[in-house]
Specification:
The protein is 0% helix and 53% strand. It has no helices and 11 strands. Strands 2, 4, 5, 6, 9, 10 and 11 form a 7-stranded mixed β-sheet that branches. A hairpin with a 5-residue loop joins strand 5 (46-51) and strand 6 (57-59).
């Protein structure tokens, strides 16, 4: 079955950096568009960044210039490099996979990112 496992979250000071990873198993990873979402307490889940199966990327306006999404198909892994972190980036970050033809969707369990001094 499909499994997405996020890692790399933690506590970081404002202005710091983290790199999140999401490793997929049970799927033909190269056929999937991958995305990172986040959900802060009391708020709706929001799209942060996405990368198509062909490598095209899109970033939310709130993270442009600070975050980068990339993928390594050989490692079945998608990354979210987060720089210049702000307290408002604090949230649980989730990885999502969507098949480019069937639109079958899977979610990871999430990883907590806390930005605080």
């Amino acid at each position: 079955q499909v499994q997405l496992v996020e890692s790399g979250g933690g506590l970081v000071q404002p202005g710091g950096s983290l790199r999140l990873s999401c490793r997929a198993s049970g799927i033909n990873f190269s056929f999937y568009a991958m995305s990172w979402f986040r959900q802060a307490p009391g708020k709706q889940r929001e799209l942060v960044a996405s990368i198509t199966s062909y490598g095209s990327t899109n970033l939310a306006d709130s993270v442009k210039g600070r975050f980068t999404i990339s993928r390594d198909n050989a490692k079945n892994t998608v990354y979210l490099q987060m720089n210049s972190l702000k307290p408002e980036d604090t949230a649980v970050y989730y990885c999502r996979a969507v098949h480019r033809q069937t639109l079958g969707t899977s979610w990871g369990q999430g990883t907590q990112v806390t930005v605080s001094s």
